[in-house]
Specification:
The chain is of the alpha/beta class. It is 47% helix and 13% strand. It has helices at 2-6, 10-19, 25-34, 39-44, 47-51, 58-64, 69-82, 95-98, 129-144, 157-167, 189-198, 215-225, 240-250, and strands at 86-89, 106-111, 118-123, 148-151, 171-175, 200-203, 230-233. α9 (129-144) packs parallel to α10 (157-167) and α12 packs across α13 (240-250). The chain is elongated, with a radius of gyration of 19 Å. The N and C termini lie far apart (44 Å). The model has no long low-confidence stretch (mean pLDDT 95).
């Protein structure tokens, strides 16, 4: 297994590191910093070295040293090819994402990430007719001014924002709370394809990862993190949109 890791490319090592279920973006960054930003060195390290790193315990060491890593990486690269997607490492991500303290080490991407400036439009999954109309009109207008509209492809305001940008032949990005191979909600399959063909669908999560209570907030921090500002159109006081707005405030957006 050690010889296999010796032959890893840096990009493949980052893809594997990102895929470890027990390692999030903050811990991944800590590992990279400890090993002088060489992701291959993480997998070539000894258990003794890994134990010296804050937050690293037996479970994480076991995942780093797992014999299943080689086959997982081969399968994940095969899925990338099958879905015509790429794994973009940190240096290839928009600069605004580099400013957040928990910047991902990479993102799965289907389509080409449009240039900025980026503006996020989010809101309730159960909007009023007025809210839907405003989301489309504002996204349309901002797109005509050269903004790339960012949202989460959820039902309601998110999908209206994406559609408004598409109607203007503008740029739009959708961040998913699951793997790129899962279209959620399923009725947004056509919207997914339209966004991917003219902009980009992005995810921090490996193929097959389903959305849950943990993945949606992680997705929301990227929606706000890439953007220069966040517009909330109709939201419950404790809705996911308000979580995105809170992230924006913490990130100085």
């Amino acid at each position: 297994m050690q010889s296999y890791y010796h032959n890893l490319s840096e990009a493949d090592a980052l893809l594997l590191l990102n895929g470890l279920s027990s390692v999030g973006p903050i811990l991944a960054t800590r590992l990279l910093e400890f090993f002088d930003h060489d992701p291959r060195a993480i997998f070539l390290s000894s258990e003794m070295e890994l134990r010296r790193i804050e937050g690293i315990g037996p479970k994480i060491i076991s995942s780093i040293k797992s014999d299943a890593n080689e086959s997982w990486l081969m399968e994940e690269k095969s899925k990338l090819e099958k879905f015509s997607a790429r794994f973009l490492t940190r240096e290839r991500l928009p600069s605004m994402l580099h400013e957040i303290y928990d910047c991902p080490i990479g993102l799965y991407a289907k389509g080409e990430i449009p240039s900025g400036p980026y503006i996020a439009i989010v809101g309730t999954r159960m909007p009023t007719n007025y809210g839907e109309r405003m989301a489309k009109e504002i996204a349309y207008g901002l797109s005509m001014k050269g903004f790339c509209v960012v949202s989460g492809m959820a039902r309601g305001i998110d999908s209206c924002a994406h559609q408004g940008a598409l109607d203007a032949n503008g740029k739009t990005i959708a961040f998913l709370g699951n793997g790129l191979d899962i279209v959620y909600p399923p009725e947004h399959y056509g919207l997914y394809q339209d966004i991917a063909s003219t902009g980009s669908v992005l995810s921090e999560f490996p193929f097959g990862r389903k959305a849950d209570r943990r993945t949606f907030p992680m997705r929301n921090r990227l929606v706000s993190g890439i953007s220069c500002g966040v517009l909330v159109i109709e939201s419950a006081s404790k809705g996911g949109s308000m979580i995105t707005a809170q992230f924006a405030a913490e990130q100085g957006r």
